[in-house]
Amino acid sequence: MAGQLVECVPNFSEGRDLAIVDAIAQAMTGVAEVALLDRHSDRDHNRSVITVAGPPAAVGEAAFRGVERAVALIDLTRHQGTHPRIGAADVVPFVPLEETTLEDCVRLAGEVGQRIWSELRVPVYLYEAAARRSDRTNLENVRRGQFEALTREMGTVAGRNPDIGDPVCHPTAGATAVGARRFLIAYNIELSTPDRSIADKIARTIRASSGGFPCVKAMGMLLGSRNLAQVSINLTDFERTPLHVVFEAVKREAARHGVEVVASEIVGLIPGKALEMAAGYFLQFRNLRPESVLERRIAAAKAAAAALECAE
Amino acid sequence: MAGQLVECVPNFSEGRDLAIVDAIAQAMTGVAEVALLDRHSDRDHNRSVITVAGPPAAVGEAAFRGVERAVALIDLTRHQGTHPRIGAADVVPFVPLEETTLEDCVRLAGEVGQRIWSELRVPVYLYEAAARRSDRTNLENVRRGQFEALTREMGTVAGRNPDIGDPVCHPTAGATAVGARRFLIAYNIELSTPDRSIADKIARTIRASSGGFPCVKAMGMLLGSRNLAQVSINLTDFERTPLHVVFEAVKREAARHGVEVVASEIVGLIPGKALEMAAGYFLQFRNLRPESVLERRIAAAKAAAAALECAE
Predict the structure, then answer these.
(1) Do B35 and A247 touch (CB under 8 A)?
(2) B82–chain A nearest CA distance, Å
(3) Which of A105, B46, B136, B291 could join A180 via S-S bond, C-beta 3.0 to 4.6 A?
(4) Is the domain of B27 the same as that of B159?
(5) Which tens digit of pLDDT belongs to each residue from B222-262?
(6) By the 8 A CB rule, do A87 and A177 touch?
(7) 8 Å CB contact of A283 and B37
(8) CA of A185: which chain B residue's CA is closest?
(9) DSSP state for residue A160 in the 8-state scheme
(10) With contact defined as beta carbons under 8 Å apart, do B204 and B232 qualify?
């Protein structure tokens, strides 16, 4: 785990022809030092998400190669699916993991975006932390009307021009949104009630959009299979709003409504640091530092040894 | 972090002449792939603890080289200190970390013990999980009377002969206890009272020796500097008796005595897994598996990629 590490989670507009998704994934993981963390294709969305991690330059190269393959293999004029999209390579977000900052990822997004335009002639929108206009922080604004509307509006409607490249969609690959964001933790908290309105009320209390925690998106849902209401949460910056703070708030609100938290559930991956922070909070550790954690100490010792070797 | 990893925490009978400790540490870390995690010398104890980690064979080699240096540089006939000891290299415990078992460490202890006798002529006692006689599971039995008594009793008093080697102490280096044990978590829980008797009572409730949790050693202490009582805990197998279970028990017992837990404190290092287990407990995660943790997924992906490269 020593050294700089970023994640990239590109979404491609193909979720049915798995030979195409294979080809894209192979192009990405063909880059040395890039590890495939996860891969998920959805038939209804007709969309695939490929998660890779590695050193920044290697991940930038992998992202570019994935986009290159997608541009060659996916024809968006014939694409149908329930998920909104503007391009064959629809979104390409970079996420800082170890020893990298959000700013490093903003820079990487700019560099990869420039290559996508220069070498593939696909115009690029920069979003979230990489946005160069405030209205593009929110990806929904970039994607409004999708590929079909964008093809018509680019170059004619005010404010729809790309950040990088000429204002003309690629004929078959559309445009690509390249971004930088922090690691997003997706998790659900189940309540001891089938009453979805309670989950809705709790979601409104904790989410940023209705005055709650700054880094929380949340909504109430009904889990049909178990007939339980749940609060479905996206935590967009767990270092600013810790996981355990949100959990404790949900628990407190649930009690106010006379129900209990039954369980919680992670969707996808969770950084070890979020768990360490939670353990430190609940166990009331006075002195839990990253270097108190055995595995981090080992990684640091290995990195120091490697640096020493290079210096000799 | 991918691949097999063991820790070794040898204790050497020198804590004042740091040039000697330097020489021992350098001999150990001169082995490729061995990382120095921690190093601590105590003048009163006249003893040093060097913590290293790496692949099993490399750590075994490092342990042997450290013992070899200690045997060459430390003269136990002139050693004075408050900590009990039987040898220049006093104890050499191996601890399983990643992808290794306690049994792997028992085997490693046997191999290194054999080399210590064959090449250095220092007789070896095997202790804890590596013990070949039940009375040597407990290190105190091996170390009774220390170097001075052992020198007289070896070969003459029943039950004092070493497990490996002739029953004669090395003239200047004594004997060495080589063992295998699980990772030990040392931590203290501070109470909102200066009354040490409450900490004593709680310690008696939770520790194995008076009927508490099987993997807990504990005693009450008074923290002079802050005038607070604390329960000082050694957790010898956190996978069997989780950290959070002990913490919750102390909290409950404290409340019964009308006091509160003020804070807890780690001494040394704590494995990430112990923190993940605690976070999973308190956050009520239904599905927290090792592979849900981002860093483990990355390590697994890297290991898989490396294996694939070797196979090609």
Answers:
(1) no
(2) 28
(3) A105
(4) yes
(5) 887 788 999 999 999 999 999 999 999 999 999 999 999 99
(6) yes
(7) no
(8) B294
(9) -
(10) no
| Pick from A110-114, A238-242, B208-212, B307-311: least confident | B307-311
Sheet containing B228-235: give its strands across.
Answer: B216-223, B228-235, B185-191, B261-267
Q: Is residue B300 part of a domain?
A: no
8 Å CB contact of B38 and A299: no
- Cβ-based neighbours of B278, under 8 Å, separated by 6 or more: A278, A279, A282, A283, B242, B243, B244, B247
DSSP A184: P
CA A219 from chain centre, in angstroms, equals 18
A263-272 in b/e form (b: 16+ CB < 10 A) is bbbbebbbbb
Domain shared by B64 and B157, yes or no: yes
- Residue B311 lies inside a defined structural domain of this protein: no
Distance CA(A198)–CA(A250), nearest Å, equals 11
User: Using CA of residue A173, residue A174, residue A179, residue A181, what is the dihedral sign?
Assistant: negative
Asked if B94 and B8 count as a contact pair (C-beta separation under 8 A), the reply is yes
Cα gap B261→B228, rounded to integer Å: 11
Q: Which two tokens stand for residue A35?
A: 């590890």
Distance CA B177, CA B163 (A): 10
A90 within domain boundaries: yes
Task: Give the model's pLDDT for residue A1.
Answer: 40
Q: Is residue A292 part of a domain?
A: no
Q: Are residues B164 and B202 in the same domain?
A: no
d(CA A93, CA A95) in angstroms, rounded, equals 7
Which of the residues A95, A283, A296 would you substitute to probe the B interface, choosing the one with the greatest number of B C-beta atoms within 10 Å?
Answer: A283
Task: For residue B137, give its domain range.
Answer: 5-180
Parallel, antiparallel, or unpaired for β A89-98 and A176-180?
Answer: parallel
Round to whole Å and give the CA distance between A137 and A163. Answer: 12
